[in-house]
Amino acid sequence: MNADDVTGFLSRWSRRKLEKVDPAPVPVPAEAPVAQPAGEAQPAMEPLPPVESLTPDSDFKPFMRPEVDPGIKQAAMKQLFKDPQFNVMDGLDTYIEDYGVPDPIPESMMKTLYQARQHVWSDEERAAADRADAEAAAQAAADAEAKAAIEASLPPADAYPADPPHPYVSAVPDQKA
């Protein structure tokens, strides 16, 4: 496929697209406003109660009508949500705490962390910790040796009878019948 084929295709597609005749849009008649009888005037908006007098049990519907000033709507909503029932923590506020303040790791835990030893501690602290670890390993090895020596000095487990004899029975009679 060469460049002439592509331009030929695009020009043909464009020409066919323009030749399509769209049906004329049908005008949608606008709804005629309902004429009110000459004797009736538009109902006047009833006066709103003072925002300060609102309680959670008050009716807030008049404040939510479209013709009410947005500032008055906002003041009414603030008055509604001042009620303590709307200020109860629900336990799902996981991110309410300030996580920008670092929680320091306790020193006892820091001593056991290998990464902290390698990257945070000074050379002297690292050397002291390595010496303490070597002493602890030597003590553990000595304890294991002592335990093995004690276990070796004990008689084997099969040297003891499975059921020790009862102190009041000297011998169990043979029960052949």
Based on CA atoms alone, the radius of gyration comes out at 46 Å
The biggest beta sheet reads: none
Regions with little confidence, pLDDT below 50 for 5+ residues? none
Order of helices and strands: HHHHH
N-C termini distance = 110 Å
User: What is the subunit arrangement here?
Assistant: single chain
Strand content: under 5%
Number of helices: 5
Calculate the mean pLDDT score and round it: 77
Q: What is the helix content? A: 40-55%
Tell the overall outline. Answer: extended
User: What structural category arises from helix and sheet content?
Assistant: mainly alpha
Question: Strand tally, please?
Answer: 0
Describe the protein.
The protein is built from five helices and no strands. The chain has 177 residues and is mostly helical. Among the domains are: 51-86, no CATH class; 107-154, no CATH class. The longest helix has 31 residues, at 123-153. The N and C termini lie far apart (110 Å).
Using brief descriptors, characterize the structure shown.
177 residues, mainly alpha
Helix and strand arrangement:
Elements: H1 3-19, H2 70-81, H3 107-112, H4 114-119, H5 123-153
Give a short synopsis of this structure:
The chain has 177 residues and is mainly alpha-helical.
